[in-house]
Amino acid sequence: LRISPLILGGLEAFSRAAAQTYEVFFQEKQLYKRLEKANFTKSSLAITAPTPSVPKKIDMPINLSPSNSDPRVFKIAAVQAEPAWLDLEGGVTKTITIINEAAANGAKVIGFPEIWIPGYPYTPFCQNFIEAAPVLKAYQANSLPLHSEQMRRIQDAVKAAGVEVVLGFSERDAGSLYMAQVTITSDGKIANHRRKIKPTHYEKTLFGDGSAQSVFNVVQTKYGRIGSLNCWEHLQPLLKAHLYTQHPQIFVGAWPPSWESKPGGNMYINSAEAWQRMSQGVSMEGAMYGIVATQVVSKEGAKKMKIFGPDGSQLTEPIDPGKEEILYADISLDRIDDVKLIADNQGNYSRYDLFHIAVHDKRAKNWHAASYENAKEQNAFNEIYGEVDNVAALGLKAVDEEV
Fold it and tell me: Which sites are catalytic (predicted)?
């Protein structure tokens, strides 16, 4: 029996259509079975299904805006200058002058040195406590409170200039000092306030530790996600790891004055060259631009200021030793993708199944609630003082987070 090719082709097409129809019918039948188990009705698919459980925490990817692929070019600036030593008003005035100058030259992101106001206190390193006491008293008196008229003047200057600023300062909080940084966004608001988590060496005799919120040191701005580190925080592996999880695109590495290393004297790890390499390393590890800002107090320490690319390349030449100057570099965030394509240590070049860090974000309290036998008195006390703590100015809630 010979069958026409035309008829044969038609039979094959019919066979395929029948198989597809059966598959659709089978899938619909299975779907209806699942819907029946979920208490749906076939006719209306009514909303009678049980409410699904909602996880307590949903990890969502950070939306980078502008993204690592954004080709637009803008200017960033690193400040190398001598502070207005022990002069709060002079320091505020000089800060505003530098912000205005950098903005006039086209800078959109400006990084200042560590405790720029009122300068880095080398005095106790060179004198005993008795000799240094008068200077340290003046240092405390000229330190900058977070919520103060002086800080508001700086915020107003940032807003007027339309720039993003990371400012280092000695923060006075009641009777204590902290090595603080604030990120002030172009709307004049303090988007991030942090304190150096562990003052280094003799700094511990003057400054307190940063609280848990200080490890959250990256904020979103119009010109990318900006992070910040103080001095030897560059040597804190876990702090750096947590910095990278926040996906910064630019960071400010803030440093004090420095000197070159000498045999039998200043160790290499405490030299300008070593500090420069630390910031360069953070730029490479995090695939981000690095603004390295420093104070000027000696010719030897002045060559440290640099701006690094996300691949660790040096984007600027050293300026004249001992010279106060603002260093500029034109950047575009799409260079970050060049590095991320090769090694993204928060993505394709990570092993979270092997390593992770736990961040304990609990607000520390400097008081203990009084205990009353009378419930009414206890409730009244709790209403008034229940939320009082020593980092309330940060406005953050206490949570535990694992990264």
Answer: 114 (proton acceptor)
Q: What pTM was computed for the model?
A: 0.76
* Strand pairing report for 358-361 and 399-402: antiparallel
Pair (308, 272) in one structural domain: yes
Smallest CA-to-CA distance from 308 within 342, 281, 334, 270 is with 281
CA 17 vs CA 22, 24, 27, 309: distances in Å: 9, 11, 15, 59
Asked if residue 186 lies in contact with residue 163, where contact means CB atoms within 8 angstroms, the answer is: yes
Could you list the residue range(s) of the whole structural domain that residue 370 is in? 358-402
Task: Please give the Cα distance from 54 to 286 (Å, whole number).
Answer: 33
Instruction: Tell me, yes or no, whether 210 and 290 share the same domain.
Output: yes
CA nearest 110: which of 291, 249, 378, 276? 291
Phi, psi torsion values for 220, nearest 5 degrees: -85, 130
> Do the beta carbons of residue 83 and residue 120 sit within 8 Å?
yes
Do 287 and 177 have their domain in common?
A: yes
Identify whether residues 42 and 100 lie together within a single domain. no
Rounded (10°) angle between helices 88-104 and 149-161 = 10
pLDDT tens by residue, 142-193: 999 999 999 999 999 999 999 999 999 999 999 999 999 999 999 999 999 9
Task: Write phi, then psi, for 362 (nearest 5 degrees).
Answer: -110, 130
Please, which residues have CB within 8 angstroms of residue 164's CB and are 6 or more apart in sequence? 108, 109, 110, 158, 183, 184, 185, 186, 221, 222, 223, 226
Q: For the stretch 352-365, what's the b/e string if a residue is b when 16 or more beta carbons lie within 10 angstroms of its beta carbon?
A: eeeeeeebeeebee
CA-only gyration radius of the chain, Å: 29
- Residue at token pair 């390295």: 292
Please report the DSSP string for 64-105 in residue order.
-SS-TT---EEEEEEEEE---TT-HHHHHHHHHHHHHHHHHT
pLDDT tens for each residue of 78-123: 999 999 999 999 999 999 999 999 999 999 999 999 999 999 998 7
Domain annotation covers residue 113:
yes
Residue 303 falls within a domain, yes or no?
yes
Could you list the active site residues? 114
For 270-308, the DSSP string reads GBHHHHHHHHHHHHHHHTSEEEEEEE-SSTGGGGG-EEE
Query: For the residues of 136-187, what is the DSSP string, one character each?
Result: HHHHHHTSBPSSSHHHHHHHHHHHHHT-EEEEEEEEEETTEEEEEEEEE-TT
